[in-house]
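Appendix B, Record 12. Input sequence as logged:
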Amino acid sequence: MSRAVPPRVDTGRGRRPILHHRRPGRATRYRRLAYPLAVDTRRSAGILLYRLRQGQVEVLLGHPGGPFFGRKDLGNWSIPKGEPGSDETDLELTARREFEEETGHRVPAGPLIDLGRVRQKGGKVVYAWAAEGDLDPAQATSNTFSFEWPPFSGRMKTYPEIDRVDWFAPEEARRRLKEAQLPLLDRLEAVLASGADARPAPTRLEKAR
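Logged structural output:
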């Protein structure tokens, strides 16, 4: 007697999962579940660097590199961030490493301001910290990745993870930053306004060798 093949779950890219019922000799049946199943959540961690200029806060944002973002500007910038390695469990260390890789500068040593987490449209959860410091955008350098472009051409091209960084006042930063990351800026401003953070003296960031 043949046995039914166990059902397979398709998460449906953020929609309610679809259960694929497969039985020997019968067509596959599809049924959308009434509840979401637990799936692995992608995570990333990053640093929102800020500085004070004549009493006004400015934040450092990065513009993503690659062929898809070359002409996209408003609403596409991000804090420098990245995903943890398979052996990384401390997300603050991940945030420090990713900042260094994407800007070429080390985050100042010492305690950071915990900005909590936000969830982006694709489902990825971003954990963020803030640090006070300064760097020259012209001296920033990013790590790179390889990508086939144009599609199906067989030609691999190399692009920077971040093709440029720049300082923005909060009003302009809100125009540039991804919508899902806007609460991080709000939280930083709230902390600075309350005076609750024991900030160390501003530090010019050390360039990584």
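The chain has a mean pLDDT of 80.
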